[in-house]
Amino acid sequence: MDCVDLTKISSSQRSWKIDVQGETMTLGNPAQIMAILNVTPDSFSDGGLHNDLVAARTFAESAVRLGASIIDVGGESTRPGSQPVSVSEEIERVVPVIESIKECGAYISIDTSKAEVAEQSLRAGAHIVNDVNAARDPQMFEILAQTQAPSVLMHMQGTPATMQDAPRYENVLDDVIVFFEERLEEAERSGVSKESIILDPGIGFGKTLEQNLNLLQHLDKIHEHTGRPILVGLSRKSFLPKFFKRDLPAQERDAWSHYFHAQIAHACEILRVHDVQGAHDLVATTALFEGQLNV
Questions:
Q1: In the chain, where are the structural domains located?
Q2: Does the active-site annotation cover 8?
Q3: Is the pLDDT assigned to residue 70 strictly greater than 80?
Q4: How far is CA 215 from CA 180, 181, 201, 203, 206, in A?
Q5: What is the mean pLDDT of residues 201-229?
Q6: Which CATH number is 6-289's, of 3.30.420.340, 3.40.50.1100, 3.40.50.1370, 3.20.20.20?
Q7: At 94, which helix (H) or strand (E)?
Q8: What is the pLDDT of residues 7-20, one digit of tens each?
Q9: Which of 237, 242, 246, 253 is catalytic?
Q10: Which helix (H) or strand (E) segment is 59 a member of?
Q11: How far is the first Cα of the chain from the last one, in angstroms, to the nearest whole number?
């Protein structure tokens, strides 16, 4: 069947309208699809696959046809154990790609924790800043206040190089909620509208298997305490096969990814995924079974 426009079947029970450069992006339930476009040599699943402009543009155009409404461009790997790259190198990786795909028919997000990279990417045509460090760069909130760009703020304990060494929490759910409340307060003090912010609990970023599951089971609690839409990125992550005491290469973890996507598609507003078609069809099928989509 033709690609289903998920924005047409979103429930009115949880719905946000976020201003994106004068356009209105509607987030609701079921979740919208954010396609991962890494232009890095070392990302855990797709490092090196989209490093030239033709490959990146081909991927973006295909992702939109398959149902993605957001393309997330990243120029620095954040896999466990990864090392940071310089600001200049990250800009050189992402800005030409953003310029190349900005007419692809989707919103473009820049996956970066560096304010300068975010600023240059927004100038190049990106619409959203997706920050795994939740704007802890001292200039990030300043850039967001100046541009009024929507942002995703993610929770991470430690840094990508160290985050999985020994994650510890008093209570992971409570700690993540308190972290988000503090970041939202800081955002508003910096002149960033709370209504422009989306939250990401950081599945796999400084969490054990049990802590990841706890967060996924209680996404509604994060929403209740913060009042903000939620993005979840669990696609192909290494914790998935650990439930079964097995392992598989990242590219072979889509079935497990989509099982979890099915469980949370109505508890979050954005799914950040590698397999766009599988995630889109999963969400559309869920809507069909719940009577939100006519055949």
A1: 6-289
A2: no
A3: yes
A4: 13, 16, 7, 8, 12
A5: 94
A6: 3.20.20.20
A7: helix 87-101
A8: 666 555 577 889 89
A9: 237
A10: helix 53-65
A11: 10
Could you give the CA distance from residue 175 to residue 167 in angstroms, rounded to a whole number?
12
In this structure, are strands 23-29 and 197-200 parallel, antiparallel, or unpaired? unpaired
Distance between CA atoms of residues 45 and 64, nearest Å: 20
Among 79, 93, 236, 272, the active-site one is: 272
**Would you say the pTM of this structure is higher than 0.85?**
yes
Q: What is the DSSP letter of 227?
A: -
Q: Are 110 and 129 in contact (CB under 8 A)?
A: yes
Inter-residue contact 282 to 258 (CB < 8 Å): yes
Angle at 258 between CA 218 and CA 212, to 5 degrees: 35
- 109: which residues sit within 8 A by CB, 6+ positions away? 34, 70, 71, 72, 73, 126, 127, 128, 129, 130, 152
242 classed as catalytic: no
Which whole-number Å values give the CA distances from 279 to 34, 136, 254, in the listed order?
Answer: 10, 31, 9
